[in-house]
Amino acid sequence: MGNASTARKIGFAARVVTQQAGRTRLGAALWSGARAASSSFARVFHVLWLEVTGFVFFVLALLGGTAAFREYHKVGADPVNMNKVWAAGVLILVFVYFGVTSFWRARKRRG
Description:
- This protein has helices at 6-22, 25-75, 82-110.
- The mean pLDDT is 86.
- Helix 1 crosses helix 2.
- The chain is elongated.
- By secondary structure, it is mainly alpha-helical.
C-alpha cells in the first residue's frame, strides 16, 4: 500500500468489508437493520435536542421576565430608565418565540 496513512488504510478496509458483507443475505440484512436503527436514533436525538433547546429558551425568557419585573419596580416614576424594561421585554418575546418554534419543530419532526 505504500505511503498511505493509517486512517486511509482503515477506511479502505472498512469499505472492502462492507462491500463483501453486502453481498451476502445476512450482511445485507444486518446493514439494512443498522441503517434503519441509526436513522431512528438520529431522529429521536434530533427531537430531544429541539425540546432541550426549547426548554432552555423558556428558562431564559423566565429569567428575563424576572429581571424586567425588578427593573420596572426600580423605575417607578422615572420614565427615562424604561429603556431597560423595553429591552428586557423584547428579549423575552424573542426567547419565547424561539422556545415555541423549537417545540413546534420537535412536534412536527416527531409526527
